[in-house]
UniProtKB/TrEMBL annotation:
It comes from the Bacteria. InterPro entries: AosR. The lineage of its organism: Bacteria, Bacillati, Actinomycetota, Actinomycetes, Micrococcales. It comes from Luteipulveratus mongoliensis. This is Uncharacterized protein.
Amino acid sequence: MATAFRRKGSRVVGRMDTQEREVVISLFEQTRELVGGEDHVSSGDPLQDLIGGWDRAPIDPEEVASRDPALQRLLPPASRDDDQLAGDFRAMTEDNLRRQKATRLSTAIAAFGGEPGGAVGVDLERGGEKIEMDLGQAQAVMMALSDVRLVLGERLGLRTDEDSEELHAMLEAAEELEDPRMLLAAYYDFMTWLQESVTIAVMA
């Protein structure tokens, strides 16, 4: 069972069992696939990546409107009142935003042992698997968790704090998680707790 992350010097350390860790990695991977940032090659210079978008053709509004609603939540319009402004800003910044999100999600996957570069080991004394991150990784994990929660929230139809509170109450009252919505709710609840845990540890 997962334990809260703690700050230990310049490191952030937590524990969770294998199944929990694999669920987290899977959600990171699914969100990264949705973002699709790996298809948008970076120049290696963030400023150049941004400037490079200035002369790009506008993205087809119909293509944007037909996107998965969860992707629309991840890549929202800069303006809901000015379509021209929103389109110009999207053409200029979307590729870079996709890359940033995909990079953070890849960092999070590696930190949880899903790809080379993670620091995961079995803790025989206290049980579970130990996950250890530097502050840069932990900050990337915080933002990656936020993106995962946006996706899950969209799948669950969450729009307000009241929606989230109602879902949490339903989850607590549920006797089993066979209902797909309840399973998604459990994932959302766990990722919310995990993000809070990592955030508190980073800010400590």
